[in-house]
Amino acid sequence: DVTMWQPPPTGLQSIILLLKDYRTSSSNDARKSFQDQLQALKELSDGNNYLAYIFSDCNKEEDNLRTVAGILLKNNILERYESIPPHVLNYVKEKVLSSINNPSLLIRNTVGSIISSFINKSGSFQSWPTLLSTLSSLLDSSDFNAVDGAFGALTKICEDCTTLLVQDQSRPLNYLIPKFLHFFKSTSDRLRKYAITSVNLFLIDMPGGLIVNLETYLQGIFSLAGDPSAEVRKKVCQAFVTLIECRQDCLQGCINEVVKYMLQTSQDPDLSVALEACEFWSTFASTRFCKEILREFLPKLIEVLLDRMVYTETDLAMLGSLAEDEMVPDLPQDIRPHHHKGRVHGGGEDSDEEEEEDDLDNYSTEWNIRKSSAIGLDNLSHVFPDEMLEPLIAQLQLRLNHQHWPVKEAAILAIGAVAVGCYKGMQFHLNSLVPFLISQLNDPEPLIRSITCWSLSRYSKWIMVQSDQDTFFRPLLKNL
């Protein structure tokens, strides 16, 4: 029986030594040599057998080394699946699955990645017909490691093979989704996260297994809304964002409760959770019922978005030296804003402004809560061009002379963010706002100067048509 393959001790030890040297080498030349040897291992007819054996059976070796073997095995499957003989694939499957309940989380996570790579490359669950039923059965185990390993693997499969699961003729989601929903009540943070992550992935396709359990799912995400785990709360927010974007009918009976929750969660002390909540507002702005539902929440929402537009300590650390160059002349890259990625407006009319925003951010390509909140305010300004002005101006009056400069900087950002959506109403305030902004071009903080340049540029058309050039255009030109 080829699945009983055992490695010759000498060959096994030489490969283990190679993996150890590869892990610990710091020299580029040495690593290149080890990579060449690992490449040669791929060419061996039983090279994958060695890796599978080291990964699953070499319990005396460090978990990190065994994980390296597992990752190499996964990569081999992804790169060479078609050329691996069936008997080797069967051996690897057996060895990998035997490690599903390993005490090491690192090993269990790697098991899931290897299993998912099999299905991904084969393009069908028929290549491993017992896999899903086996993993599903393990969810009922009394061994936590077995449950965790199986659920981790299932979640990875749901992430990587969503379409395959939806289209599989055996309809595995009919029995998997009810099991996932059961774990919404698990006492384990990680199992609750696996559960909601897995089900969320099918909200767009809405397969039959989810449709018949939709009420249970909605009750489940509301029950997790105050979960102690930030990771779970993030998934709850992602669920509501997806539903409001793709399945609005599912929330019609509870949309007010959802808005209240997302407003509360936009203030979550965990910034990663608050970021997911803030994503909701740009999406909600494009819905047909936004204006009716959100009107009563506008004053509080504007306050929250302005709070979230303030630079965090992490943002300031990333921007580093910019905060210390008061005496250095501003370069062109210094006066580009660090806040507001271009996206299509929900209802915007000025295509020139949309094109202008394509290059508005240069300090980081990473999406963050500041950018999300600024975009949210921008999009809402197109839905509420008049109604949001009063609460917005009230907040600006509180913040534009704030002693903490990042609060003032965020308020100046807000003035620019609403320039297109609220342009008509903002004109009545520009006689006082524009001179104030011009004065900020001499602020000692470079980030104040930067955002002021951008916000003024958003009102350049208004400035250019004013008859009193001595009050607006000439002072602007002088200070630039």
List keywords for this structure.
480 residues, mainly alpha
Q: What is shown here, in short?
A:
The protein is an all-alpha fold and 480 residues long. It has 28 helices and no strands.
Reconstruct the topology from this structure:
Layout: H1 9-24, H2 28-43, H3 47-57, H4 63-80, H5 86-98, H6 105-122, H7 131-138, H8 144-160, H9 162-167, H10 173-182, H11 189-200, H12 208-211, H13 214-223, H14 230-246, H15 255-265, H16 271-284, H17 290-294, H18 298-308, H19 313-319, H20 351-356, H21 369-383, H22 389-399, H23 405-417, H24 423-426, H25 430-440, H26 446-458, H27 460-464, H28 473-479
Task: Characterise the protein shown here.
With 480 residues, the chain is mostly helical. Helices cover 64% and strands 0% of the residues. It contains 28 helices and no strands. The chain has helices at residues 9-24, 28-43, 47-57, 63-80, 86-98, 105-122, 131-138, 144-160, 162-167, 173-182, 189-200, 208-211, 214-223, 230-246, 255-265, 271-284, 290-294, 298-308, 313-319, 351-356, 369-383, 389-399, 405-417, 423-426, 430-440, 446-458, 460-464, 473-479. Helix 6 (105-122) runs parallel beside helix 8 (144-160) and helix 11 (189-200) runs parallel beside helix 14 (230-246). The longest helix is centred in the N-terminal third of the chain and has 18 residues, at 63-80. The protein is elongated and about 90 Å long. Mean pLDDT is 88; it is low at 330-363.
**N/C terminus separation:** 80 Å
Average pLDDT number:
88
Class inferred from helices and paired strands: mainly alpha
* Helix/strand order, N-terminal first: HHHHHHHHHHHHHHHHHHHHHHHHHHHH
- The percentage of residues in β strands lies in under 5%
Query: What percent of the residues sit in helical stretches (DSSP H or I)?
Result: 55-70%
Q: Write down how many β-strands occur, each being a DSSP E stretch of 2 or more residues.
A: 0
Low-confidence stretches: 330-363
Largest sheet: none
What would you report as the Rg, rounded to the nearest angstrom?
28 Å
Give the overall form: elongated
- Helix count, DSSP H or I runs of 4 or more residues: 28
